[in-house]
Amino acid sequence: MSIEVSLNCPACGGAVxxxxxxxxxxxxxxxxxxxxxxxxxxxxxxxKNKMDRERASSLSQGWFRKxxxxxxxxxxxxxLEAYPIYLPFWMTRMRVLGWICGYEERQRxxxxxxxxxxxxPKEEMVLHDYPxxxxxxxxxxLGIKRLRNFSGDSxxxxxxxxxxxxxxxxxxxxxxxxxxxxxxxxxxxSRVPHITFERLHVLPRAMSMVYxxxxxxxxxxxxxMYFYTMDGVTGExxxxxxxxxxxxxxxxxxAGTSIGGIMAGLGIASGVTEFALGGVVIGAAIFFLTYTxxxxxxxxxxxxxxxxxxxxxxxxxxxxxxxxFKFLPFDMRR
Length: 334
What we know:
Number of helices: 8
Number of strands: 12
């Protein structure tokens, strides 16, 4: 008498059954090739690699020209090697449901210029599904910690032909991390700035191990070595390091100093204490962002690096300056 184990396909979520002792099977709904490992029947799926060495190298021009990298990188950057690897990821879909209560603060001014803070009660029902992932090994200095893409064709051939990293982290540890991430995402999506009470339940779907194809491309620029990684399914750049441009650094510090000084000067010249304080705060923030880009802009970094410095994201932060207004003693957004 054979024993059957009920599982969920990590690709489509369909219910599949496997007889005891089987190591591979195909999902009857989407056709994905699945691996079965361990006594608990953990499903492992390998996404099919859709890139080749020639295409991975040719796409380097798009990476070289994008962002605030060195202007001559596209002409001086030389691809030295490109090779694929399979990285293991824990993957699940977390459902978070419950309630989050709190309040939002708003600044009100009367005709005499007096300001007061009002607390607007907020109560939000939470019901979200979050696809989450976490790398299951030490990827070294690749700057990859989670999956960006959760769909693709699966297969067995590439999984045996491409070098594969072995999983070194536990399922329970990854599950705890992703539960915390799901709760954090639910709090963010509730848009309750000041939380006073919450009751949330996290319901994980079946955990699975996904082996994902990643292409590593190494290149040189002015005798220095750099690299970037590409998604073997979508062809998008995931992480990498590239040389910055000294002209962009100089322009950033010049423009930041000028604009920051003008904002601070206008605030002080207004003669109104609140506007003076607001001008100084905004001017200092602009100067800080541009100085940080000037200091670290010699290398542009993209990806999940622990030592990630301010680079291209610093200038993007200028577009989010409206977030600073909530720290001011008055509301400039009215």
